[in-house]
Amino acid sequence: xxxxxxLLSTTLPIILAGIIGYISWxxxxxxxxxxxxxxxxxxxxxQVYIKIINLFFGVFEDTILTKNKKQSDIEAKMIEIVKxxxxxxxxxxxxxxxxxxxxxxxxxxxxxxxxxxxxxIIIALRKDMGHSNTKINYDDVLxxxxxxxDKNKKELGL
Length: 158
Known about the structure:
By secondary structure, the chain is mostly helical. The chain has one domain (42-156). The protein has helices at residues 2-64, 71-88, 91-104, 111-128, 138-145, 149-156. The chain starts with a helix and ends with a helix.
């Protein structure tokens, strides 16, 4: 009986320490794997967000410079963005983009309202990218895009 008590009192702490060490190691490995996957998803998400911005600014630039971009090129880019955004985008960005896409071509919105909806997408992108308390608003974004924005703001209905 004393032998069993002695064995248990000396080996049990070693066995428990080994088990705890192994569980800690497993937890750390799982945590590292989860962080790696999150980083990969963030990279993909940011690439999709850049495509959205590039599409919008490309169309905006073409409009200003009166270049004619083929509708089929724009539609192909939109399909690619929607596909990737569905997989990688946050709920907030996906909902805002979906709303903009559904309402942009209906003819029920003015171009100014369409611009505001797109600025809402930019704000959602910024929030998802870690700027949760962003103070960026329509004036900030549109002021960077439109020449003499403050002067033309009233005419644009903003």
